[in-house]
Amino acid sequence: MDTTKVGFAFCGSFCTLSMAMAALEKVKARFGDVTPIVSEHTAAFDTRFGPAHEFMREMERICDRRVIDTLVKAEPIGPKKLLDVLVICPCTGNTLAKLAGGITDTTVTLAAKAHLRNGRPVVICPATNDGLAASAKNIGQLLDKKHVYFVPFRQDDPQGKPTSLVGEFSLVVPAIEAALEGRQLQPLLLGS
After folding, report:
1. Which runs of consecutive H residues, i.e. helices, occur in the chain?
2. By C-alpha distance, which of 2, 5, 1 is closest to 118?
């Protein structure tokens, strides 16, 4: 097991939270020191995919530490250099837009800003229904940003949701390893 300190941030792509939890387990097994971080919506909304408190409790069980769930708790990530790498998994179109635009008004976006100030990698695992529409420009901007890397992604339902993109959750650990080496895991665009 590695001693790399990983932040694992969840956004409100509720239909992919179970896949993100499986990725969190693999990240914890590989790196050991993992801090869970959640967006306000992930922390507050009970959905048809499960109650928020159950997701939070499971994150804390896996990581053996409390979830960072407020702006105040996220702010020290940068000044105290709490993380070596930050993963945003899943990363919604809303969070992609905020990251591309430099907006830091959520726990996850503030964690990313605080972490990036130290020149350390952020790994994004997208899950957005408009990845090939309104979010495409934001993905493009982030691909060109220093210290930002992506988990390889694909269209998840080309016929039913032709603009939807989702990261390959099984590649989160290799994407982190590549980002820690300063490189983008390839291929970035996966086939269906």
Report:
1. 17-31, 40-44, 52-63, 71-74, 93-101, 107-116, 136-143, 172-180
2. 5
Does pTM surpass 0.85? yes
Please report whether residue 188 resides in a domain: no
Count of domains forming the chain: 1
For the domain that residue 141 is a member of, what is the CATH number?
Answer: 3.40.50.1950
C-alpha 180, offset from chain centre:
15
- Judge whether 69 and 107 are in contact, CB under 8 Å: yes
Per residue in 74-99, pLDDT (tens digit) is 999 999 999 999 999 999 999 999 99
Domain residues for 131? Answer: 5-180
CA distance 123 to 160: 27
Q: What confidence category does residue 180 fall into, taking pLDDT thresholds of 50, 70 and 90?
A: very high
- Tell me, what's the pLDDT at 48? 67
The H helix count followed by the E strand count for the chain is 8, 7
Q: What 3-state class would DSSP assign to 7?
A: strand
* CA-wise closest residue to 165 among 184, 143, 139: 139
